[in-house]
Structures are given as C-alpha cells and as structure tokens.
Design a protein that fits this description.
Structural class: mainly beta
Radius of gyration: 27 Å
Shape: elongated
Largest sheet: 6 strands, mixed
Strand order of the largest sheet: 12-11-6-5-15-16
Number of helices: 5
Order of helices and strands: EEEEHEHEEEEEEHEEEEEHHEEEEEE
Number of strands: 22
Length: 385
C-alpha cells in the first residue's frame, strides 16, 4: 500500500489567499514509500503541511501481480497548528560557530576550507528527554533530525557543516547529529530558525555589529548563549557572549560561575570586601576586577553624554560599567529614576567596548533625552547566585 497527500487552494477553501494561483491536488506534498504490511494509520512528517492550509489524503493498494489500484476517495482536512510548548520550554540554540578560525596547514592539506568547521549546538535544558522527530533547522541551515532521535535531559547535540573536518579539528566522541551539506552560515549575520515542522521553536538573527559579541567574527570564538537554562531571548545580542577559548566548546558546557572565579583566591563569601575599596567580592567578580587590589577605578560612572540616535544628537543620562562577559550566573540591571523614589529598568543598551583583559565596558543611556537642568539618577544592580 501507499499513502499520498496533496494540497488544494481555491476561493472558499481554508488557507487560500485571494489573488494567489489555485493549487491542485495532483501535485504531491508528501508520499510514503511502499508499505508491505497493511497499516490503516500513517504518521506524516510535520514539515509536509502548513498550519491552516487544506489537504487531501488518499491511499492505494497493490495486488499480488504488482498492479496498483486507483487512489481511494479523498479525506480532506485543514492542518492545525502544533503545540510546541514542550519544545520551547526545553530546547535552546546554545552555541553557534558561524565564522571559524582559518584552517591550519594540516587542515588545508586535507582539503578543507574555513567554512567547513562551522557548527550549531542544540541543548535540552529541561529535566526530561525530548523526541527530536520532526525538529529541523529551516533558516540559516537546512537540517532535519532523524526520526526517533531523542535528546536526554541536559544533553546537547551538534549539527556540523562537515563531519570529517569537524572530527579533524575537535576529535571523536562529540554528539554529532549529522552534517548540513548545502549552504554556509553568513559571517555578516543571518537568521537561524529551529522549527517543529514549519512552526518556529527558536528564531533569531545573529549579527556582527557592536550589539553582538565581536570576538566571534573570525577570531575562532563561538557564540555562547548565556544562562541557557533560563531560556533567554535568543534575538538579543546581550544574551550572547564569546566562548572562553578559541574553537568554542561543542557538546560541552562553556560556563563560568562565582564559585569557579573565587576558588583560586580562596574566597567563599560573596559579601566580603577584603581590601575595603567599596566593592564586595560579588561585584569584583561582576566587574572582572581583582579581589585583593583596590578597584575603585572600575566603579560604574554616570554622566550626561551627547549621543547621536536616529541621526539626531541629544543629551542623555548614561551609565558606563565594566562587565565580566563570562559571568553567566549574574544578571545586570541598569535602573533610572527622576526622583530616587521610583526606579525603572527601561534603559537602552548603546554598545560594549572590549578592555583587552577579557572584560568589556558597557554603555547604557536613558530612553528619552534630558535637558541641561533636568535632575536624573541612574544606578546598577547586580543579582548573583
């Protein structure tokens, strides 16, 4: 037996858009292979249909002499929108190597180019395993996870540009799901979309401008999603950082914490200020300063600055502060107030400037311009573990 599905579209049919060409069922959108054992139910790949569009399903039989019957009468249906909450609450795109370091002489001799070392990592941050059947990348790269693939709780899987190249650079034993052979990730940025069928799970546009980590654009560092277990907004560059080391950490955890920072100094208390410089240990960690050396120079600095926004130059209340980009267990909050009574977290991120020591100085501004005689206040709050 064999099953087939065809789409129909015409005035009066669900999913039809006025002015579009008609769609006739004669064109398959999906057809099964030959099924030797009778089966009155069939699972159709989610990617074969689009929500709210109309389709017809038919089946036919082959006799013992190899002759096919006519197609059966059609069962017409409108495809529904799948519930992807189980995926959005568990799957994140946790690492992207879009602009790898140049090939080494050995890699070049093996016939590989820079782009052959691209990869994307998907991680399950939930407490239960996830079935990746019908999960696929539909933008940036084209890749379908094999039916029956499962991703254990806390585990990661990798989709790589070239398996042989990836193995040469990173070794064996990595959780590679397979290669994407067509296309490459654009160095200047593009949209990456992880979908269940045609319904988005994660969709974001990475970029190589100042709002995104700049050390990932050709120096060999990968994009790392900060605090993946918190399911951060993938579309915001501030939720990403460069990997700790060149080459990234495909399949592994590229995390940093107060405990790992404090251990070499023998620090166990986040609230102490050993050198009395006004910065407790947690803030020393947050700003990337030394806990035993005076670091008052690293204190956040408020100012009125003339900034050009949308081609117009105005005066804004601003705050500049050092940030430890690797501090995944911290959250930074820039708060503005007109009177010290009510505070709002509605500032605008302007950009970050690397300091050459692994930290970056971030600049934030007020949402609206201020006049020379307007009173305003700004502060930084850091929340830690």
């Amino acid at each position: 037996m064999q099953w087939r599905i065809g789409e129909i579209a015409a005035p009066g049919v669900a999913g039809y858009t006025a002015g579009d060409p008609f769609t006739y069922e004669i064109t398959d959108v999906w057809k099964s292979g030959d099924i030797a054992i009778f089966n009155n139910q069939i699972r159709v790949p989610t990617s074969a249909t689009r929500p709210s569009h109309t389709y017809r399903a038919r089946v036919r039989m082959k006799d013992a002499t190899g002759r096919w019957s006519r197609w059966s009468p059609a069962v017409q249906f409108v495809a529904g929108t799948p519930n992807v909450s189980a995926y959005t609450s568990s799957l994140v795109v946790s690492e992207v190597m879009y602009h790898p370091a140049p090939v080494t002489p050995a890699e070049f001799a093996a016939g590989f180019g820079d782009e052959d070392f691209e990869f994307i990592e998907v991680r399950n941050v939930s407490a239960t395993s996830v079935d990746l059947t019908d999960v696929r990348f539909t933008k940036g790269i084209d890749f379908d996870f094999a039916p029956g693939t499962t991703l254990a709780a806390g585990a990661a899987t990798l989709v790589v540009k070239n398996v042989a190249a990836f193995t040469l650079r990173y070794g064996t034993g990595k959780p590679v799901a397979g290669p994407y052979l067509d296309g490459t990730l654009k160095n200047e940025g593009e949209e990456i979309k992880l979908s269940y069928g045609t319904t988005a799970i994660r969709s974001f546009i990475y970029n190589s401008d100042a709002t995104w980590p700049t050390d990932t654009d050709g120096t060999g560092y990968s994009l790392i999603l900060k605090l993946p277990s918190a399911l951060p907004d993938h579309a915001l560059g501030i939720n990403w950082r460069g990997s700790h080391t060149p080459g990234g950490n495909p399949g592994g955890l590229d995390s940093f914490s107060f405990a790992t920072w404090a251990a070499p100094y023998g620090i166990t208390n986040a609230t102490l200020d050993a050198e009395f410089d006004g910065l407790k240990n947690l803030l020393e960690y947050a700003f990337g300063t030394h806990p035993w050396q005076s670091s008052q120079v690293a204190l956040p600095a408020a100012a009125r600055q003339t900034l050009t926004v949308g081609g117009l130059s105005d005066i804004y209340l601003s705050l500049a502060f050092r940030r430890q980009p690797d501090a995944d267990d911290l959250s930074y909050h820039v708060l503005f107030s007109p009177d010290l009574a009510g505070w709002t977290e509605d500032g605008v991120f302007v950009g970050a400037t690397p300091n050459g020591d692994g930290t970056a100085t971030e600049l934030w501004r007020s949402t609206a311009p201020v006049s020379a005689d307007t009173e305003g206040f700004v502060r930084l709050r850091v929340d830690g573990p």
